[in-house]
Amino acid sequence: MTERALNDIGPDRSLLLVDDDEPFVRRLARAMEKRGFETETAESVAQGKAIGTARPPAYAVVDLRLEDGNGLEVVELLREKRPDARIVVLTGYGAIATAVSAVKMGATDYLAKPADANDITAALLSVGDAPPPPENPMSADRVRWEHIQRVYELCDRNVSETARRLNMHRRTLQRILAKRSPR
Length: 183
Prior knowledge:
Strand content: 15-25%
Helix content: 40-55%
CATH architecture of the largest domain: 3-Layer(aba) Sandwich
Structural class: alpha/beta
Strand order of the largest sheet: 2-1-3-6-7
Shape: elongated
Number of strands: 7
């Protein structure tokens, strides 16, 4: 690790990683330790909140969807306990609405999986710089599909209610839901 990179991290190198994918969180912890962070891991909202309350970290990477709840609960608690913490929300379900929610809750950045340790480090250490445009942005079809999936989930997977809210015919919605997600 270069001296410059260590200086970018700052004197408090504590990093909390919250993700329910155990192999992923172990690999990420090792990679972040090689970059100079002092990592601690949690695999649930409850563990993340417990660690955040006991030892609020300077940095955090929090998965959005965890088995026991929403990672935004951890973001909110971390923001209360340590307002200067740099928090990145990481998720496999990238959607504009969840990105907005994460930032409103206090996240510094929002990354869609798969994100590697370099992407995460850059997001944690960026200060006011706008990130570069994505190399491979979502297509318009994918953005539409993500929106439909989000509304469908918010309607408790009720096709008729989702179709009504989207002002869409129920059978059209059923055909869209039966297909695989676009790339």
